[in-house]
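Protocol step 6 of 9: fold each sequence in the batch and record its structure tokens directly after the sequence line. For illustration, a two-sequence batch is reproduced in full.

Sequence one:
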Amino acid sequence: MALDRWLLERSVQQPDSGPVLRFYGWRGPWLSLGRHQGRLPEHWRTMAAAGSVSLVRRPSGGGAVLHAGGLTYALIWPQAPRHRRQAYGYTAAWLIDGFRRLGYPLQCGEQAAEAGARDCFATASPADLVDALGQKRIGSAQYWRHGHLLQHGEILIEPPPQLWMELFGGPAPDPLPGLSRKQLIQALQTSLEERWDPLRWIDKTLMLEEGELNPYRLETRPT
């Protein structure tokens, strides 16, 4: 996530560099905390101290997100629409199209956004996507810098039931059977390429000099 923030800063400095889309996973379970999320439940700190989960403060807003058994995306969008609902609407359409290709219909949530929520997936606002049973499948959050947007999102595929219960005190959403990350990434990439025509997207490995991320390093044990 520090790399996502670095890419946003680079976008601000080089506005002609174009948008960037990243997909990534996590080594072990991590709980990312929203930019403005306040006091943490004591049992989260206890679990982190015991090594059951690691904590990180992300640059984007929203509530806590468990990264385990899912897929994280980051979209860096130079000069995005200034109306946040419009930006969310565009990305929602792209994600809905991608999931439709795989036979998983999704739609936007209808609940009011809850600032500082402990569990990002406890509610589904119009910025989030839910399945036919009303279960939240994708939670998204934004961070803006000088008109440039970083949007983070977590796609739930196989959320761990026991760890979810320990963290949030409720059952985890159902897994998505038969859905591979490779298939999902390909479908979402194709959907975004079609919606962002005539941009020419290229796969690129990011090569950073040692220490280049230091100014944007995030705390792993936030207060």
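Sequence two, same batch, same settings:
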Amino acid sequence: MIHLLELHGVAVFSAKADKGEMDAFSFRDSGTPYVLLSTKKSAERGRFDAAHELGHLVLHAESVKPSGVEAEREADSFASAFLMPEADVRAQVRLNPSLDEILRKKKRWNVSAMALAYRLHDLGLLSDWLYHTTCVNLSRMGYRSGEPNGINRESSRLLTQVVNDLWNRPGGFEQLCNDLAVSAEDVNDLIFKLAPVGLRGSAQSSPPLRPNLRVVAG
């Protein structure tokens, strides 16, 4: 989704906020569309939010447009259909699938289990009773507030190229931080952690292009 947005001229940045305060939002400035995504959401929910904001940019760009609940409903419907096309869903999922099948199939479209359950119900592939039961069980398993064993967060090709270019210039990244009067960690937050930002340590002669990864306890 991030690659697609960038390919069509949408600038994607972070909207750093405490969990629950904000999901995402979009706007246009001097003709350029912007999408800001929360860093607190799972990768799957971030993808849905990106598609949701694309829906706003596509559907609600005219001077006369719906607002409030109606606009949010339309953007949700757009995102759901965009990420989970009806023909593909009907071809891949049988009528009234089990919870295990939903958890397997969600990986095909890289969406949350809740989003897929809603889409199946909306398409008539999940009965009212089974949809309710599925949502209750998913909540008990932690899928309402997060996405256990989820996918990796999408990265930005554009921002990665920019950051790598700065690292290849002597003092380029440090100069950027000085010009912005912010720390390297803050720059990483501002670009939504969509690009590898190496942080210079006291013992490092040069910063790494990609951060070191290590396994930590959950």
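Proceed to step 7 once all outputs are recorded. Observation for sequence two: Confidence is low (pLDDT under 50) at residues 199-213.
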